[in-house]
Amino acid sequence: MRYYFLGLSKRRVLAISSDLDQLRRIVASLERAGADVDAVRSADAIASDVIPHRYIFYAANEGDVANVASLGGLVPKLRDRAHVTIVAQTARLPDLTAYLRDDRINHVIVGEELDQGVFVTAQKLLTGDIFGIEKYLPPGTPVQYARLRDFDGRGRAIDTVLQFAEESKMRRQVRSAIGSVCEELLMNALYDAPVDESGKQIFAEVDPHDRRDMRTPRPVSIRFAATSDSFVVAVRDRFGRLAKNTVLAYIDKCISSPNQIDRKTYGAGLGLYLVANAAATYVVNVAYGIATEVVCTFDRGAKSPLRMVGMFVHPGGAEMLKSGPTPQTAQGQPGAAGAEG
Hints:
- The chain is of the alpha/beta class.
- The protein folds into 2 domains: 116 residues, Response regulator (Rossmann fold, 3-Layer(aba) Sandwich); 190 residues, Heat Shock Protein 90, CATH 3.30.565.
- Helices cover 32% and strands 20% of the residues.
- Helix 1 links the parallel strand 1 and strand 2.
- It starts with 11 loop residues before the first strand and ends in a 19-residue tail after the last helix.
- The N terminus and C terminus are likely disordered.
């Protein structure tokens, strides 16, 4: 393992873990993604005041309190433009949002998701190629596709997805979760994502019941596929505008007031919270002003807590998203994430 930091290339990534076996796994996954890897056992092993690496994969120790303060010597040494991926043994939904509050921490990978999660995350960060459901599927997996622009189209799309899930022998409880997530993501993409030229939400003042008779100005697409151990869904709008801090605020509000959650009060933010609780992984890809893609996976087996969350911004979009664009819902665009320039 390498420990030198001079002459960093754009593909040089720093891996940190006090567990040697875990560190080796992280390094192997990073190298498979095409990274040149420096590896250390702790942030304190880096003598300089500032870590020069842009991309850092940091393993949180078991038992650490899940928040930025628990990262010890790491955070004070980060560059303003650093991008950190946390690898954790366990993490509940409140833990995930606690980590993500720092602008530079935009990905959390939990438990056995380590190898593939690190690989896909690093590959997307290094290449800037952030869109596509195929990245979360085995090579050659057939992908189904539907396009829609209105409420009726949403209903037909959900029926198609659920029929495919049943034909793919997904369990009833899993199909129910898939249907709920598709419903939320499609409604968000159809009626919460659209904005006019000034950035104002087009349907913000329209009664939800009246929206059902209206068409979104730009088409929405849904892609879905089944594998031997999971079901994957991706919904894409053509706007791309929600800031990361807004996403976290929505989830935190629902977490802090579980007995007061009301769809009328929380609106689209509740949809994001419901999606995060139903899916095994939740990944958001954003090209500012162009598109948002939300990718969710579901296990064939017993329901597991959310174990991977990632927020990626296409090059050039992070600063625009930091300025606080119009809120949306589960179409959760990050603030300073992913592979911006």
